[in-house]
Amino acid sequence: MAAITDEQVEAVRALVARIPPGRVATYGDIADAAELSSPRIVGWIMRTDSSDLPWHRVIGASGRPAPHLATRQLELLRAEGVLAVDGRVPLREVRHTF
Questions:
Q1: Which of 3, 17, 72, 95 has its CA 20 to 30 A from that of 47?
Q2: Is residue 30 a part of any domain in this protein?
């Protein structure tokens, strides 16, 4: 992966901060909006610099959270009214568009 710039980090952070309660965006949605070459860049940024952001509103394209985050992420989303079905968030209903 190419070096990630401060501008890219800030663009991702700003987009994640804009996702309203009760909505989600995928890593790919954020990568597209930030004009990044890969959703993996968003994943890396989220892993390293998102503790002060609504990280739980960012989900994989399948609608499933990462296994190591699933319980906590789905709990936080449920508190915002986002109900998962069989561990999958209904993206058609709750996907945020930038």
A1: 95
A2: yes
Name the helix (H) or strand (E) containing 32. helix 27-33
Containing structural domain, residue 81:
6-89
Is 24 buried (19+), middle (13-18) or exposed (0-12) by CB count in 10 A?
buried
Distance (Å, whole) CA 93 – CA 65: 16
* pLDDT tens readout for residues 16-60: 999 999 999 999 999 999 999 999 999 999 999 888 999 999 999
In sequence order, what E strands does 14-88 have?
A: 25-26, 58-59
> What CATH number corresponds to the domain at position 82?
1.10.10.10
Structural domains of the chain, count: 1
